[in-house]
Each structure stands twice: as C-alpha cells, then as structure tokens.
Amino acid sequence: QVQLVESGGGFLQTGGSLRLSCAASGSIFSINGMGWYRQAPGKQRELVATITWGGYANYADSVKGRFTISRDNAKNTVYLQMSSLQPEDTAVYYCNAALQLHVFGDVNTYWGQGTQVTVSS
Asked: Of 6, 74, 82, 108, which has the most beta carbons under 10 Å away?
C-alpha cells in the first residue's frame, strides 16, 4: 500500500537546474528519513543524498555544493534541488524511504520507480 511517487526528471543541458520530488503515501506511522540514489548506465546504484526527518542531511562528495536535499514533513515529501548539472549526473534517480508502518513495526526501506535525468553537453 505504500507508494513513493517521483517526479521532476527530464532532459537538459550542462549547467542547468532541476528539482526532483518524491511523495510517500499510504499507511505510514513514521518516516525516519528519505533520500535519493542514482544509477548510471554501466554503474552501480549510488547514494546521492539523504535527510532524516529531523533535518540532518548527508551528501555524496560528487554533488556537494551543487545539490540540496530538503523535506516537507507535512507532505511526506522529499526534494532534490540539482544545480550546475553535468553529463556525469545522467542517471535514473530513485527515491528511497525508511519507514515504519506501525508503532511496533520495524523500519523498512522502500523504493520509488525511478525518474530519468539526462544532461547533455
């Protein structure tokens, strides 16, 4: 019943900006944190940025200073503001969430379907 719906991907040129959004819906007791991962062709999936629901953010070195992760607790939504995009940022971006579905439940991870970001030179 839990869904992570991503939006905001697209095709743009080097130096452009894009904002990704991911909204979690369904029966959710609490969100521990959410984040973004990406997978480029021929590469493994890698962490881009994460944020706890208390607001602590963590970034991959490759995106520090260019990307900003944020969240809206009331909307169960995480955002990724991407600036100064480079061809190396081209990948499928996946939303990730660490959720509890019940007060006594475990924290489990959930994934969105992915959204394509393509940066051309």
From this structure: 82
| 91 pLDDT above the threshold of 90 | yes
Q: Are 15 and 84 in contact (CB under 8 A)?
A: yes
Surface-to-core class of residue 57, CB atoms within 10 Å of its CB (0-12 exposed, 13-18 middle, 19+ buried): middle
Element (H, E) at 74: none
pLDDT(1) > 90: no
pLDDT tens across 12-33, in order?
Answer: 999 999 999 999 999 999 999 9
- Report whether 99 contacts 30 (CB < 8 A): yes
pLDDT at residue number 35:
98
